[in-house]
Sequence to fold (719 residues):
Amino acid sequence: MAKYLSPGNYFVEVDRSDYPAGSNSSVVGIVGFASKGPIAGKSGDKATLITSQENLIDTFGEPSETMPGQGIEGGLEILEATNSLYYVRCAATSAAEASAAIPMGACPAISVCATPFGGHIGTADDQNKDYRFTITTYDNVRSQVLDSKVYNVPSGTLSQTNANGGESIDALRKVLGGSLDADRIGAFGTNTAGSGFIVNPIAGSGATMTITMESTVATTPTASDWYGVSGLKPLDMNGNPHPSYNSAASATSSVTASGGTFTDLYYWTRSLYTGAGYNEGTTTAGATSGTSVEVNVNGNSNVVIQVNTEGTAAETFKGGATSSVFLETAIGKTNVDATSREIVAYYTSAQGNAAVASVTSIDNFYDLTTGIGAMGVNTMAVRDGVHTAHTTADPRFIKPVQGTYSLADGDSGIPTESAAQETALIGQIESDGGRSGIEALDDEGVPVKIALAPIDGAFDGVQNALITKAEASQKFLALVSPPYGIGKPSDAIDWTNGKSTDRTAAINSSYGAVHWPWVKTFSVFDGKDRWYAPEIFAARQMAVTDNVARPWFAPAGLQRGRLTKPVDVEVALNQGDRDSLYSGGNIINPITKFDQDGIVIFGQRTAQRTNTATNRINIRRMLIDLRDTVVNSTRQFAFEPNDRFTWDQVVNVVAPILDEMKRERGVTEFKVICDETTNTPIRVDRNELWCKVLLKPTKTAEVVVFEVNVTNQSAQIGN
Fold:
C-alpha cells in the first residue's frame, strides 16, 4: 500500500487490532543474545515480554563477559525504570536444546498368593487367623532403609464368599493403604485372581524389598504363636514369578525381590528452550550452574520430579499411577502444552539424542507400546505405571530411576564471528512467517516504542537495519551509538557521517537517535563497574520521562536526563565539544559530566539532518504515540459508509485526543479536518477516507538566554 503520511501531518490506517488504545509509550525492545530462552522466529516464538529483572534472568539467563553485546545487561538497567520490555533473543542455526535421558526401572515386587491364607479360604477356621507381614524396602544406591514396618491383617476380616481368596487381598490392601501414598509400599490385585502384589516404589537395580509373611494357629495369638506361611514369590524383570518359585511347594514365607533397569526405555527430558545455560556444570567460583532433573519418591506421590537450576530447586512435579497424574502430562510433552518453565518430558524406547528426534510424544501411559527384546518380551504396555507383558503376566511398576540427571549438549547458538553475529541480530522473515532478530520488533502484538541492539564494534549493518525498520514500521525510535574506544568528538562525528572504518554510511533519520559517549556504571548483576553503551541509559531515561511526564517532554537536561547510576563518562566533554556534536548538521546527543549536577544527557536530537520539527526526540515520540492512539481509536470506522455522518464521527473521536494532548502541553494548537475537502470524489471512489490533522507541537527550550542590559545611574528602569 502506498504511503501517504508525511512527518507530523497525516495518518494512514493500519490494522493493528492487537494493540490497545492508549498504548504504553515506555515499552522498550532489545535485540541481543542470551544463554537460554525462546529464540524469536523459531518454533513460533516471538519477542518475549519481560516485566522484571528476575523475570529476565529466569527466562534468558545471566549476562556474561564472553557474550557479545549488552542485551541482558541493558535489559537489567532499563527494567529499573519500566516493567514493559520485549527481549528478542538472537541465535545461529547451531542453537540446540540440552537434554537428559533418565533410565526407566522396574520396582521390586513380590506376589502374595491366595493359598497362604490357610489353604482353605472360606472356612470358619480361616477367619480366626491373624496374618503379619514384615516389609523392608531398601535403596542400595543410597545405602539406606526406606521403610521397615510390620503390617497386621487381623482375624475376622476375611470373607467366606470368595473361594479364590480375593477378599484376603482386599484385607491386605486396606491395611497397606492400597497405594504408595503413605508408606512407600502398595498392595495390588483383583478379587477374582485371589492373589496380589506388594511393590516397592523405588525403581531400578539399586532397589530391593524383603517380605516375611506369618500366620497364627490360635484365635488369640501370642508371640510364640506366629508361624511362617509359604506363598511369596518375587517377580523378575518381565513381571513373571522367578523360576525358582514357580511351584507352590517351593514358595517360602520370606523372600527378597530386586529391582532392575531397562536398557532401551527412557523417560526423556529436554530443555524447553535452546541454550548452553541448561547444561549442568560448575562456574569458576564452584557454584552449580545449568539445569538438572532430580527423580525421587516420597511419602506423598509415586514419583517426584524436581527441576534444579543453578543448583536450586526451581520446580516440582508429582505424578504416577496412584495419583492418576501422568508425569508427562504434568510437565508437558511439547513447548506448546508445557506446564514447566524449564523442561518438557515424555517416554520413549529410543536410546540417545539422535533417535529421539523421530519419536512422537505420547499422551499417557496407555499409548506407549514398544519392544524390549533384550528382556525376552516381544511387546509391553505401560498402563497406569504397571508393566504388563503381552502374555498377561503379573504387573510390575516401572518408573524413572531415582537419581539426579544433568541436562547436556545444549548450544546457546551465539556466533563467535562478527559477520555471523550481525546476521543473527539483523534477522529475517522465516519461511514459516516467523520473524527473527530486528524483524521481530515489527511483529503484531509487540508494541515497542523504543528499540536498541547494544553491541560494540563494527556493527553498522545492525544499526542501519534497526533504523530502517523503525522508519518502515513507524512504530518506534531506534537508539544507536558509536563503538567504545572513540577518543574524541571529531571521531564520533566522523562515525555518524560514515567516514570511519566502523561505519561507511551516514545516519540520517528522524526515527533514529545517537548518544555518546559511553558511561561507566555499577553492574546490577555482578557488582562491578562496567562501561555501558549510552543508548541503554538513553532508553532508560525515556522510560523515566514517561513515568514522570509524557513522551513529548524531552528526555534530557537536569529534570529528566540526569543519570543517577553512572559514575563516569568515557570522554569528558566541554562546551565546545558539545557545540560541535550538536550543531552544524551534526546529530550526536552529548552525555556530559558536570561538577555539581553529575552525568546528564544534554541533547535530544533525532538523527535527522534537516532542521524541521521532527529533528527532536520529544516531537518524534509524540507523533509515534499519537499515531497509535489515533489509529486504535478510529479502527471502528473501517468499512463504515464513507459519508458526512462518518466524517463527523471521526472528528469527534480525534479532536478530544488532541485536546487532551494540548492540555498536557504536547501541542499548542491543532485542527482536525474531515469533510468534502479531504474526501474528494476520487478518494471516495478509491474507498479511502482521509482525515487531515494540523498541529503545532510544543517546542523545548534547549537554549536559555538571559539578556542583561547595563545602564547608568540616570537611566529610568520601568515598564
Residues 70 and 454 are 5 Å apart (CA to CA). Residues 262-406 form one domain. The radius of gyration is 37 Å. The chain has 15 helices and 36 strands.
